[in-house]
Amino acid sequence: MHYKFAALFFIMENIRTSIVTIGDELLIGQVIDTNSAWMAQELNKIGVWVHRRVAVGDVWDEIWQALDEESAMSDVILITGGLGPTSDDITKPLLCKYFAGAMVMHEETLAHVSYLFEHVFKRPMPLLDVNRKQAEVPDVATVLKNYVGTAPGMLFEKNGKIFISMPGVPHEMKGIMEKHVLPLLKQRFALPYIGHRTLLTVGIGESFLAERIKYFENSLPQDIKLAYLPNYGMVRLRLTAQGEKEATEKKLDETFAILKNEVKDVLAVDEDISFEILLGKLLKQKNKTVATAESCTGGYIAHLITSIAGSSDYFKGSVVSYANSIKENVLHVSNETLASVGAVSEETVKEMVKGVLNVIQTDYAVAVSGIMGPDGGSEEKPVGTVWMAAGNAQKTETKKMHFRFSRKRNIELTAINALYLLCMFIKNDS
Amino acid sequence: MHYKFAALFFIMENIRTSIVTIGDELLIGQVIDTNSAWMAQELNKIGVWVHRRVAVGDVWDEIWQALDEESAMSDVILITGGLGPTSDDITKPLLCKYFAGAMVMHEETLAHVSYLFEHVFKRPMPLLDVNRKQAEVPDVATVLKNYVGTAPGMLFEKNGKIFISMPGVPHEMKGIMEKHVLPLLKQRFALPYIGHRTLLTVGIGESFLAERIKYFENSLPQDIKLAYLPNYGMVRLRLTAQGEKEATEKKLDETFAILKNEVKDVLAVDEDISFEILLGKLLKQKNKTVATAESCTGGYIAHLITSIAGSSDYFKGSVVSYANSIKENVLHVSNETLASVGAVSEETVKEMVKGVLNVIQTDYAVAVSGIMGPDGGSEEKPVGTVWMAAGNAQKTETKKMHFRFSRKRNIELTAINALYLLCMFIKNDS
Q: If phi over 0 gives left and psi between -120 and 50 gives alpha, with beta otherwise, what is residue A25?
């Protein structure tokens, strides 16, 4: 499966990669696997495709079988999890046996574990046997130092295949990937360049979009792939190509320009960025500030905005007015409005924008009020009804929406759509 | 691998299950797979263990091979994804060929698709060919109606193995699982009862905890499994057993009582619930209300609290005081405090609690202020430094913490620890 092809000026290798995750917690659903997505993204950036991901429990035979199968299909097998200090973690002894090694104390790792316990974790107690065991490794492994944790990464080779074992704790895995695995793969293989172009459309369903760009899709060159990624009621379109960097980029740019033109009336963003990142870019360009007034989203919009590093440059604060008394007393929504048309109304979100602009003193603001469920709906205003408004001191734009999903998803959809309304308001504000 | 064992009064089957997820977006990391965790949890509740999870791309041979492999190992193969209307979705034609069927129009599904477009999606345009195609199914499939989407679920049987294909859109998959798959598995198999007991410890590392309960662990009956689930600097302990319901529950209760006693000084919660759920329980018991004053978490604590249905009974609102001017003008933190000891200080979070109790008028409040990174740290207050306070009108409890991770994780850790501080304050408040 490991094939090479030579072009005029470069040699390129397509290596097959599998990710094997180990741990009962993944199979009973106690933990959501976010590691694999991060690993795939980082691998992709250096030209490595993940072909398969397999999750197995802390079960000797299942892990063994997964290693057999994946190494029959892939060149690189990345393994996460099962390296903890407790007895349900069997990955290290298994790897030792799988690669016919013997367990030995790795003195450098032991010194590192001791250092961590003394200076970082600040545990007053002496090292336990289980802690010392963290520093043992099979003598057939190359140790990959885990700077932020006690379980080292380990590299094995067998029949020309590379196996790398890492802890499942996300920031420990990330450290080992960044410090060791990604540089190692770049050095070992002549990797192809993989390029993507992504845009986001709003207001058109996947099938209508597909119908619209059918001709474009059918006339795509064979080496450019188009994917539809629907989410939050919006559809992302992604073009992907691989090859020599400069030629790939050029081809993608040309094709992307055509695609953008095909969808120009429903195009929201021509980058693969979230609305909270777009918001930051727009506000920094204009040197303006923003605040949020949130009822039904309960602070989630503010959270999205502040999840971006550097957001304190343009985000000043938020009033989460869950109770109507806060809408009245802090945001100064009028009692008449609340009594006559209710909290979930166009008038209320308009007054919330005005109120929060005054209280927090920003250039722009966004406000939402709605019914997220599962209870609280009425015939007139069923669960999922949301009013949102974006505005500045001069004017306000409002929108009514209706979502039909779970509470969690209704909150997410409300936040994303409110950020979209806000971004478009700021973009069009001259 | 499909084995049965008979006990005196019941017959129990341990069925092996695999989850196969299909889609390039999962392999390039554009989407995090939350479906599998949900499916595993729901299956677990009815006594079905997931043994393997495999993710493959939208590639004919890879999907085919995954079906071959998983059906060689498992009795039930649950497949999600690849059923969309666009040309990168190849799962349905592949399944048609795999099970040697012929594609036919399923009239009931066609009527449902038409209904959805007209009345739910409210698309004015007539059905496109691709929409009609959504209603085609292999004639060898049993159709499982998808009430909230256009792609139907499909059930196939081959060599005694059950294959079920569902769309990858989370709420569509969930609908088909709840309406069809779970009832069907319960009806088809005599499933064992699976019971769990989970508790959460705070303030002790995984290895020290393991050392502490070594004797307990070694003397566990063979049919009870203990797992350590470290997360957010806390460690969950989970006991699992399966068998006949009543006996299993009794055995788990007895063992859990012993475990709770072993860890009583570090025990935070003896249920598998989050702090935001615990907070709701405590406040409802006491018939009290709460507010948050958030600087560095930017509304994330309020979001966690309001992610719980019914939280409007006890959560009134929040002031997200990202800029110091909001701390002063809205929360009335004194200018002297901010000028002398700064925003990240014990005094500031104490004044934030007092301020938000006044502004939002609640019984309890929690406040946080810190530096989440990647920038903004200093020698004296490095990135990751956080002060938090929980209190009521009479008294306030404070805590200083230091986190060493990414911005995202620092925010999460701050929020979780602040909720813990708040819960313990309320619990101990008489």
A: alpha
CATH number of A3-188, picked from 3.50.50.60, 3.40.50.20, 3.40.980.10, 3.40.250.10: 3.40.980.10
- B317/A contact by beta carbon, under 8 A: yes
Distance CA B41, CA B78 (A): 14
What does the DSSP 8-state code read for residue B192?
Answer: P
Task: Return the residue matching tokens 């060929």.
Answer: B97
ipTM: 0.84
Q: Do B193-269 and B275-428 share a fold?
A: no
Do B316 and A326 lie within an 8 Å CB cutoff?
yes
B182 touches chain A (CB under 8 A): no
Return the CATH number of the domain spanning residue range A275-428. Answer: 3.90.950.20
Q: Are A191 and A46 in contact (CB under 8 A)?
A: yes
| Amino acid at the residue B143 | V
Nearest chain B alpha carbon to A318? B320
Taking CB atoms and an 8 Å limit, are A322 and B301 in contact across chains?
no
Beta-carbon contacts of A27 under 8 Å, excluding residues fewer than 6 positions away, are A55, A56, A57, B40, B49, B50, B51, B52, B53
Contact B267, B201 (CB under 8 A): yes
Check if B302 contacts A (Cβ < 8 Å).
Answer: yes
Q: For the whole model, what pTM was predicted? A: 0.84
Task: Tell me which residue in B85, B292, B315 faces A207 most closely, judged by beta carbons.
Answer: B85
Does residue B1 belong to the interface with chain A, where contact is any CB pair within 8 Å?
A: no
Neighbouring residues of B4: CB distance < 8 A, sequence distance ≥ 6: B11, B12, B13, B14
- Distinct helix (H) and strand (E) counts, chain B: 17, 19
Chain A residues 245-284 with a CB less than 8 Å from chain B:
none
Each residue's pLDDT tens digit, B375-412: 999 999 999 999 999 999 999 999 999 998 889 989 99
